[in-house]
Design brief:
Rossmann fold; about 15% strand
Amino acid sequence: MSYLIEEGQNIQHLLMGNEAIVRGALEAGVNIAAGYPGTPSSEIIESFSKVAKERNLYVEWSTNEKVAVEVAAAGSFAGLRSLCVMKQNGVNVASDFLLHLASSGTRGGMILVSCDDPGALSSVNEGESRLFARLLEIPLLEPGGFQEAKDIIPWAFALSEQIRNIVMVRSVTRMSHASGNVRFGPLPDTAAQAVFHYNGLLLDPDTGPVISMILAAPELQHGPQLEKLKKAAEIFETCPFNTYTGPENPELIIITSSVCSLYSREAVAILGLEERVGILKLATTWPLPRRLLTGHLARAARILFVEEVAPTLEDHVKIIAAETAAEIGVKTFYGKKSGHLPAVGELNPDLVINALAALLSIPYEPLTDEFSGKLKDLAVRYAPPRGMTFCPGCPHRASYWSIHNALELDGRRGFVCGDIGCYVMGTLPAGFSTVKTLHAMGSGSGIASGFGKLKHFGMDQPVLSVCGDSTFFHAAMPALANAIHQRSPITMVLLDNRGTAMTGFQPHPGSPANVLGDPAPALDMEKLCRAMGAKVEVCDPFDLEKTRRKLNHLLEYAEGAKVLILRQACALSPERRGKKKYEMVVDESRCRGEDCGCNRLCTRIFGCPGLVWDREKKVSRIDDIICVGCGVCADICPAGAIVRKEIA
């Protein structure tokens, strides 16, 4: 049995923030959980899947974030409590339906959990989702600790049912992936009955049809939607998760939220400012509790905002301060716009300490220049810089090798439009700098479709796109449909590594099992592409010569969309992990080393971490510890010095 469903008195566990969210939802009696994988949110659905059968839950990895919200909304419409999960780059995918859902409202409690990634630690950007709460006109909550991450979820479900609308809960990487002690509460009964009532009057929220907007009468739904937001704001005035700590009349007040409240508390404690600085930690960050805020703003003349990433709190509080200036007096604000805190990247206690020290004229030096210099010297000596690269035996390295060589042989200055996944490293030397555009999921194929139609303007360069198998179902199918319909002569290279590898091998519609491990019908990407009308080829990317020939063959077709499916499991997948097909060795007598034609082609250019340059012998060798035995390096060695021996 998972510790997440343990019951009893005074139970406490060390939980990740994501696990705390799950426990809170279980204590709230959640029935439906759906999402799309993406760090730092993936563990939420994974954790639900481990207790789904014991707790009578329906859990799924959806095709994309929009579908995840729609699945969860169906549960809410039928009177159940539901939750949908995504990272910040998924809220924009779901926003089309979310705009309509916020208008129609919900029935059973419904929560959108969005996990942002300040600093873009695992993302292509650090765009934040808080701005969507204002766009959608729905309430936003931000837990400021691990216990609060659990406790705020039942409160959010109750709020959702009070205002009859979806509620957004935002986490960040350092909340989702860090851990803290969490005290458990009781778990409710798991019995639930879903019924969708739809025969009532058109605008009856309990029994009528659930529709987004009445044609030519937006006031019939937009007006009530704004009233729901006002009701939430009134409830927020007494929210138990909004807290103030500090003196009655501080010299300065920090207004903060989420994990930044922990940084602020640490900074104040280190500087010994408990009697000089107050901390107003807000869990209800949209709409802001106006009376609560003005009461605290009146305490001090100076305000410091500590938040990630955009100055969202800063902007919204300043508006309230301007509107209530006669009541609270003139204030001086500090934060990102004043330059006291950085406008990009993650915050940390040192950054907050530096801001407080500057504002309160406190001499403070976290690290001396001498000590910082020694740290840098040690880092260079013992941890030399290493560029980002693919794992040993990664099929993407082999795929990009063949794509690069095929384009060079074609000779028409062809290029690749990239997509989101492990294969983003196709923009770097690890992927031989093959990818020339990189944006959102599915965008590689959509951009390629547009490039393919520029022949009218004299463009004759071949255009390829790359996308993964999960991305294909998520967002690339519409782009391929467009290319086929518009007869855009692109070549989509579909990198099928048998799962959503970048985020932990979560299943997708092409997988033979669902998130619970139960058998599920796997959609055949080859048949789908053929049925859509594309010319399709399939190859193993580890067969370099065959892959290169197929690519050059497809590039010769001047009309219509083509698809090359390169099928090989990820080196870290359960299918391949710990299983070597070949034992790889280097014949030192044949290794040309720095004279191989490209100055160490295997270790410097091909760059598999399993290949190591022996500085003393001036030859390459195999690192048997990390080599996975894929055998590809034997085909790239011009001297035939790398030999593969099949393992019986």
